[in-house]
Amino acid sequence: MEVPILKQGGYLIATVQAALTDADLLQLRRALIERVVQMRSHGVILDLTALDVMDSFASRTMNEIAHMIRLRGAETVIVGIQPDVAFTMVQLGLTLEGVATALDLEEGLKYLNQKFKTARN
Amino acid sequence: MAANEAHVGIKSDTDIVTARSQGRMLATGLGFSSGDTTLIATAISELGRNILSYAGQGEISISAVDGCGRCGILIIASDKGPGIPDVQQALRDGFSTSGGLGLGLPGVRRLMDEFEITSVPKRGTTVKAKKWKL
Questions:
Q1: Closest approach of chain B CAs to the CA of A85, in angstroms?
Q2: Domain layout of chain A by residue ranges
Q3: Which CATH number is associated with domain A5-120?
C-alpha cells in the first residue's frame, strides 16, 4: 500500500497507514526524495504510528531515507514508533543512529520548527 | 486447517506481510502479550526475508505448541535453496552475504526462546524457533 505524502508549509509529512511490503518501503524512499527535491522541502516527518513491525529491512530503509534527505540539506524526524516496536528493535539490535525521533506528529513539527528557527537566527 | 496453525508459501514480499499477520493473529489468539506478539511477527518477517533473499521461495508454518504445561508458538521457516555453508558464521551479528545488515538470523535467535537451524548444502535450510508464553 502506497504511503501518502502531504505538504505542510515547508515540510512533507508521510504517514504510514498499513503494513508495508519491501516494495512499498522502496517506493516510499523514492517518492520522498523526489518530493523533497520538487517541493524544496526543508523537513520531512515520517509518521510510523500505525507501523506494527519494524524489521531489519524496514529499519535500514528508514535510515537510508533520513540520510538521503540530509544530503539534500533537509531534516527528517521519525515519529510515533510504538513501544512494542521500539522494544523489538532494541532486541534485534536495530538502531536509527543519527536520525531524529519524536513522540508524535506534534512534537515532530515542534522539533523541525525549533531547528529551522535556530538555523535562521 | 485448524485455527491454531497457519502455513504460508513465501514467494514474494507480500507473502511476508501475510505470514506475519497470520503469526500475529495466532499469537494473539493464544494469549501472548502485545509485546511478544510484535516480537513474533518481527521474527517471522526476518525469516521470510531470509527465504526470499537466499532461496527465492519456501514456506513458513506457524503453530501452537505445548511443553511442560506451557503454551507456546512454533515458527518453522523452510526452503529448498542452496543451504548455508557455514551456519555458525550465519549466526554471527553483522555477517551477511545478501547486502543486508546481517541481523536476520542472530536477531531472530535473540527474539525467540528456542532456536534451531539445520542446513544442508544444495538441499535447503530449515529454521525452527519457539516462543513460550510467560
A1: 7
A2: 5-120
A3: 3.30.750.24
